[in-house]
Each structure stands twice: as structure tokens, then as C-alpha cells.
Specification:
Blueprint (H helix, E strand, L loop, with lengths): L12 H5 L3 H15 L5 H11 L5 H19 L10 E13 L2 E13 L5 E9 L4 H13 L7 E4 L5 H8 L4 E4 L1 H10 L6 H12 L4 H15 L4 H14 L10 H4 L3 H17 L5 H21 L7 H25 L1
Parallel strand pairs: 1-4, 4-5
Antiparallel strand pairs: 1-2, 2-3
Helix pairs in contact: 2-3, 2-4, 2-13, 4-13, 5-6, 7-10, 8-9, 9-10, 12-13
């Protein structure tokens, strides 16, 4: 890119302001690496070419002050104006330099589908692990910001996540990502049987209802109990959680049975994270990843609806009516 020549050789904030927030955050992170003395010569050279002939730590600080409040305000915004029937969560591990050491840090991300059918990114938080305590704190934070109405939580089989979902979202279901479960089953299957097993799994997960799915499961167990016992055991352990989505109306199942939509978002994060490789501090992780998520959130909430929620709310109304009738039946009988 053409870098305008400046008389005093200092960084131009006007050039910086033209970038999208996510690109501003990327450049800022590179600048932080340089001023902290942890970057390579190549990174330093590229950053100075982007920003001008030189820049100081005070310049980085001033620019952070203009960008960080925007990301923080978005990440802490009130979620109480809408209900979010469907929530998808995932975690990415990034490397952060702290106290002279490189540490692995989990970046927890939650996305949701609101009552009108639009996708939103609900929030980003950092944790030192993917333990139950970390997920509990993450869900508590989301609920304190107003998250409510959760009917289904979709994720991979992260450590500690399932128990946290059961505690924090009582009455909700957990949908285990079918793509990840299929991969786990394939890993436990002899190579010669991969294609056949994959086809059988697809039939089970595409079943129109739970009864059909269980019939296909029983046939799978009978056919592979001897030739692929580990695969059978893995499927049996994960079946109930991987087919939770079958309780929903048909139009919502395909997009909610996996975390594929979240994985695409993760790829965008990874594309920028690979440039950084090791973040200079935790604040830079929130700034860079948060700015990217903030921009994606704007695209989702101002674009096409992800779901037409009419069928869902009609289904919920029928569910509520059935529960009410069931609760009234014993009272009528005793009367």
C-alpha cells in the first residue's frame, strides 16, 4: 500500500482511522508486539511501513483508548431486550505472553439466535481452561447481562461444559455437535469400514423423528458390535445428546445439529490470530477478537434473518398447552 510521506516522520492517525475496527485491532496488536520488544524484525518492519516511519508506546496507548471502549461497550451490552431460544458456544485456545512466559488461554465465544430469528454474537470472555468452573462463570456473565429464554445449547463436547449447561440453563437441552461426534466415531472405526459407517451415521442423524433414529441405532449396534465395538460404544454414549435437536420442528434441525456456523467464524478469527501467533497480553486478545466479532455481529443483525421463527413459537405454544393439560389432569381426577 502507498504510505503518504509526512514531514516529521510520525504515525498518522488519519490513515489508521480508515481501517475497519478489526484491522485497526490487528495493527494495534502488531504495534504492541514491537513496543514490548517481543516481535520479529519482519513484524516491526511491516508495522512501521503500515503506520509510518516510527511510533511510540504513547501512540499505541492513545489508539487503544479510542478503540477499546467501543469493543468493551459492545461486549458488555444488555441482552435483556430479546429472548434467545438457541445458543451456540465454542472455545478457541490462543497463546498469550504473560510474565515472560507463553501461556495457553481459552477464548469462549457465544452466539445466539434471537426471538425474531436473527443471529447475534452474545459475548467473548477469556479463561485459563475449559473447566466446568470456567463455563459456569461464562454463562453466569451472559445471564447477568440479560440472556434468557434459552431452549437449546449447541456445542462440541468441551470439558465441563455439559454440567455447566445443566446447572445454568435448567429445562434447556444440550445438542452435541453431530460433526464432531461423527469424527470421534470414525476414529474408533477400522479404516475398511469408514465409508459404510459414515453412511449409516448420516441416516441416523437425518432421521425424521426419534423413534426412527433409535431403530436405526439398534440396527447399527447389531451390525457393528463385533467388527467395530469402540465405534458402537462411542455412538451409544453420544446418541441422546446428538439427537436432542429432533425434538424441534424440522426447519430448525439442520442448522442447529452442528457447530459448523461457529466453526466458520472461528476460521476468520484464526486467520488473524496466525498473523499474531503470540498475543502480547490478554487485552490485545479481547481487542482483536472482539473487534472482529463486533463487525460480524453487525453483519448478522442487519442482514437476512437466519430463521423464520413462526413455526418455533407455534411449537412452543403447543408444548406449553400440553404441559398445562398434564398438570391439570390429576387435579380433575381427584376432584
Amino acid at each position: 500500500m502507498q504510505v503518504p510521506q509526512v514531514r516529521d516522520g510520525q504515525f498518522s492517525t488519519e490513515l489508521f482511522a480508515r481501517y475497519q475496527r478489526s484491522e485497526q485491532a490487528l495493527v494495534l496488536t502488531l504495534m504492541e508486539m514491537v513496543v514490548n520488544g517481543v516481535s520479529t524484525r519482519k513484524v516491526a518492519r511491516i508495522t512501521e511501513e503500515l503506520c509510518g516511519t516510527s511510533f511510540a508506546k504513547s501512540t499505541v496507548s492513545d489508539l487503544c483508548k479510542s478503540l477499546d471502549p467501543l469493543v468493551t461497550a459492545w461486549n458488555e451490552r444488555d441482552l435483556g431486550e430479546r429472548r434467545y431460544p438457541f445458543v451456540l458456544v465454542d472455545a478457541l485456545v490462543v497463546k498469550v505472553r504473560e510474565s515472560g512466559r507463553v501461556r495457553a488461554v481459552s477464548a469462549l465465544v457465544a452466539t445466539g439466535v434471537n426471538e425474531l430469528g436473527y443471529r447475534e454474537i452474545l459475548g467473548l470472555r477469556l479463561g485459563d481452561s475449559e473447566s466446568e468452573r470456567t463455563w459456569m462463570d461464562f454463562f453466569t456473565w451472559l445471564k447477568e447481562r440479560g440472556l434468557s429464554g434459552v431452549d437449546l445449547v449447541v456445542s462440541d463436547h468441551h470439558g465441563g461444559l455439559v454440567n455447566a449447561v445443566r446447572v445454568q440453563f435448567q429445562g434447556s437441552s444440550w445438542q452435541r455437535c453431530q460433526t464432531h461426534l461423527s469424527a470421534n466415531i470414525t476414529e474408533a472405526t477400522p479404516k475398511a469400514l469408514h465409508d459404510a459407517v459414515h453412511a449409516r451415521l448420516r441416516a441416523i442423524f437425518d432421521a425424521p423423528d426419534e423413534t426412527t433414529a433409535r431403530t436405526l441405532l439398534a440396527a447399527f449396534v447389531a451390525d457393528y458390535q463385533t467388527t467395530a465395538p469402540a465405534a458402537v460404544a462411542t455412538l451409544e454414549r453420544g446418541f441422546d445428546d446428538a439427537t436432542a435437536v429432533l425434538a424441534l420442528p424440522m426447519p430448525y434441525r439442520k442448522r442447529l445439529r452442528t457447530t459448523n456456523g461457529v466453526e466458520r467464524l472461528n476460521e476468520e478469527i484464526r486467520r488473524r490470530e496466525r498473523v499474531i501467533r503470540i498475543f502480547p497480553n490478554r487485552e490485545s486478545v479481547i481487542r482483536l477478537v472482539g473487534a472482529l466479532l463486533m463487525e460480524q455481529d453487525e453483519v448478522w443483525t442487519t442482514g437476512k434473518r437466519y430463521f423464520d421463527m413462526t413455526a418455533y413459537w407455534q411449537w412452543r405454544e403447543r408444548q406449553s398447552t400440553q404441559v398445562a393439560l398434564f398438570q391439570e389432569a390429576p387435579m380433575s381426577h381427584s376432584a
